Amino acid sequence: MKESVREALHQRLTECLEANSYRKTPERYAILDAVFAMGKYFTIDELGAKLAADGTFQVSRATLYNTMRLFVSLRLVIRHRFQGATRYEACHNSGSHCHRVCTICGGIMEIKSAEVAEAVGRLHLRRFRKEGYSLYVYGVCSACQAKLTRKKSSEQKKQKSQKNNNSNEQR
Q: Which of 31, 79, 84, 134 sits at a 20 to 30 Å CA gap from 108?
């Protein structure tokens, strides 16, 4: 992560912590750095393993959960529920985006859709101010679809072969 980005994130966290009268602990800043170094989607366990591997801080699971809850409320992190599993994502922008989720391998891909953004933008909700959105599209990715097709084809060949063997034995 670039030093200028890191400094901007630390400044943003400092402002949020001061505005909400939270303590500015070194653990929170270390966790923030690790979150933004993680890449796309991660679990609490993966975040804890990263912190341990970096040798930065040994933090308890409770500290990780509490800090992630704080980061979600401060809009530094987005919490997702993908197929029963909670995963987190560093929040670089407004947090409005769409995901496609493979129901077989669990792969997650962010997708850009101007049509969805425009539709949500045009949506007028009474007594409600929109701040962002998340859309999850569940299905089967092309890699898993290819595996399923190969498996089905292989099973059909095997059944046909067994059928031929059975008919030859009966003669």
A: 31
The structure tokens listed for 47 are 């975040």
* Helix ranges (DSSP H) in 20-98: 26-37, 44-54, 61-73
**Residue 82: how many CA atoms within 13 Å on its side-chain side?**
28
* Distance, CA of 1 to CA of 38 (rounded, Å): 10
Structure tokens at 129: 């101010």
pTM: 0.69
Contact 36, 71 (CB under 8 A): no
Question: Which stretch of 59-63, 72-76, 123-127, 164-168 has the lowest confidence by average pLDDT?
Answer: 164-168
Task: Quickly count: other Cβ atoms within 10 Å of residue 16's Cβ.
Answer: 16
Quick: pLDDT tens for 107-135.
888 888 888 888 888 988 899 988 778 88
- Distance, in Å, from the CA atom of 31 to the CA atom of 168, rounded to the nearest integer, reads 68
Of 109, 106, 100, 67, nearest to 83 by C-alpha is 106
Instruction: Give the tens place of pLDDT for each residue, 20-63.
Output: 888 999 889 999 999 988 877 899 999 999 898 887 677 889 99
Q: What type of residue is 163?
A: K
